[in-house]
Amino acid sequence: MPTERLSMRRIRELLRLKYESGLSSRLIAKSLGISKGAVGIYLHRANAANLTWPLPEAMTDTSLERLLFPGQVCVKTDRGPEPDWAHVDRELRRPGVTRSLLWVEYRTDRPNGYGYTWFCTSYEAWKQRVSPTMRQRHAAGEKVFVDYAGDTIDIVDPITGEAQAMKLFVGALGASSYVYCEARPSEGLGDWIGCHVGMFAAFGGVATITVCDNLKAAVTNPDRYDPGLNRTYQDMARHYGTTILPARPYKARDKAKVEVSVQIAQRWVLARLRNRRFFSLVELNQAIGELVADLNGRIMRAYGMSRAELFAAVDAPALRPLPAEPYAFALWKRCRVAPDYHVEVDGNWYSVPYRLIRELVDVRIADRTVEAFYKGERVASHAKSPGRRNHTTLADHMPSAHRRHASWTPTRISFVAEKIGPSTAALTTAIMMARPHPEQGFRTCLGIFALQKTYGAARLEAACRRGNAIQARSVGSIRSILKSGLDRAFADPEPEPKPLRHGNIRGRSYFH
Questions:
Q1: pLDDT, tens digit (0-9, with 9 covering 90-100), for 56-65
Q2: 219, 334 in Cβ contact below 8 A?
Q3: Per-residue pLDDT, 71
C-alpha cells in the first residue's frame, strides 16, 4: 500500500531542515515522523525540479505541487453531456441496480464517455447539491417512515362549540417520498395502529421496514441498542409482514425522510386548512386527503417528477402485497392464572387449562374474542363476554373431578334417584326444593347416592322412605337410619311363595 503524500506545508519544512538547517536525512525523518527513504524521495523530486532554497515568495502550494508531482498532460476530448443524475438516482433505488451497471449502460450509449471513477465521483457531488432528504439512499419499497406532526387541527362540536385538537399522522416512503396523512384524536395505541392500517391500505402494499419514533404507543423501552416494542404493535407488524425499526433516541436523522415530510405536511396541508372549521373527523380527513393528493402531485425540482409519479414507477411495484384481511386491533395483557384456573379481563373471568394454575399467560383482547397464549402457543379462546363479573368456563379446561361435579343438573339428579326408587326420587326433590337454589342441594343428593355402594339400592330406598316419613333432609339422617337398621321396618314385604303344583298333591280345594 503506497505511503500517503505529505502536505505541502510539511514538504516546505523538509526542504528548510535540509537546505537551511543542514540536518541529515535521519534527523529530518525523526523530526517529521516519516521514514528515511521518504525523505530521500522528496529530496530527489526537489533536485529533479531544480528547486532552490529559499523558495520564491510568489510560489504557492499549488505551484510547488505541480513541480514536485508533475502529472500527465490532460487532452481534452469531446465526451458529450454529463449523465442525467436524477435518472441515475431513481434507477439506483430499483432492486438489483448498481452504479457499475448504470455506468456500463452509459458507456454503451457513449463509448467515448467518462470513466467509472469519474462517474461515481460526479454522482456523489450531485447528491450533495440536492435537497438534504436525498442524502440517504432508500431502495424501492424498502422503508416507510412514520411520525406525528407537532401541530394540531381542531374539530368543533356542533352542539357545545367545544374544540378538540386532532393529531396529524404522517407516513413517507423512502424511495419516492410519497406522503400519507390522517387525522386522529390522540397518539394512543388504538389510533396509532389504525393509522398504519389506513396507510398500508392507501399504499396498496406494505414496505419491508417501518421506521418509527420512540412514542409510548410504539416503543415500551426506548433503548438505543435493544428497544422494547409494544406487543400489539409487533402483532400488527407480523400480520402485515413488515419489520419495526425504531429510530435511535434523539437521532432525528434516522428518520429524516418523515421529519421533512412532516414539515411539508404542516405547510401544505395544515396551513392551508387554518381558516376552515370542521365538525367531524370524517369531514376533516376528507379535506386532508384532497390536499395530500395535491401535494403528491406537485413536481419535485430535483427530479423533474412528482411524488405520485415516482411512487407509481419505483415504490408501488416493489411493495409487498396486503394480507387478505386488514389487521383487527387487539390489546395484549399479561395475567397470572388464578387457583380456579381463570384469568381476569375487563371485569370478567375466562378459563384456561387447569394445568396452568399460577403460570403467566399472555392474553390477546380483541373486539369479539379473548385468547390466551402460553409460551407462544394458544391455549384458550373465548367469545368476549358482555357486561361485567361474568364467568366463561370450558369443560375441557376443568379437572376431571370438577367436570363431573359441574355436569350435575336437577334433571340428572332426579333421573339417578328414580333408578334407585320412588322414595329416593321424592327425597332428593324435597331436598332441592328446600334450598334457595337447587344447586345448593346437589352435594346432599350426591352424598345419599354414595350410600348405595355400602348398603345397596333396596336398603337405601327403604331408608329414604323412612326419611320422607320423618322429613329427614340430610345425609347424616339417612346414614343413621341405615346404621341402626331402622330401614328394615320400611322395607317392602317379601311376596308369598306360590303353591307347589303336582299330580300327586290334592290341594285344599279337594276338601271342599
A1: 888 888 888 8
A2: no
A3: 63
**Structural contact between residues 370 and 338, judged by C-beta atoms closer than 8 angstroms:** no
Q: What's the pLDDT at 134?
A: 42
**Using CA atoms, how far apart are residues 122 and 126, in angstroms rounded to an integer?**
6
Report the phi/psi class of residue 250: left, alpha or beta, with left for phi > 0 and alpha for psi in -120 to 50: left
353-364 burial code (b ≥16 CB/10 A, e <16): bbebeeeebbbb
Range with the poorest average pLDDT among 256-260, 477-481, 500-504: 500-504
Contact present, 283 and 290 (Cβ < 8 Å): no
* pLDDT (tens digit per residue) in 20-32: 888 888 888 888 8
Q: Pull the grid cell for residue 28.
A: 529530518
**pLDDT at position 115, please?**
86
Task: Name residue, grid cell 390466551.
Answer: 372
Region of residue 294 (phi > 0: left; psi between -120 and 50: alpha; otherwise: beta): alpha
pLDDT at site 405 = 58
- Size of the chain in residues: 512
- Specify burial of residue 454 (Cβ count, 10 A radius: 0-12, 13-18, 19+): exposed
Give the DSSP letter string of 420-466: H-HHHHHHHHHHHHTSSSGGGGHHHHHHHHHTHHHHHHHHHHHHHHH
HSE (CB half, 13 Å, CA atoms) of 144? 31
**Cβ partners under 8 Å of residue 156, min gap 6:** 162, 163, 164, 277, 278, 279
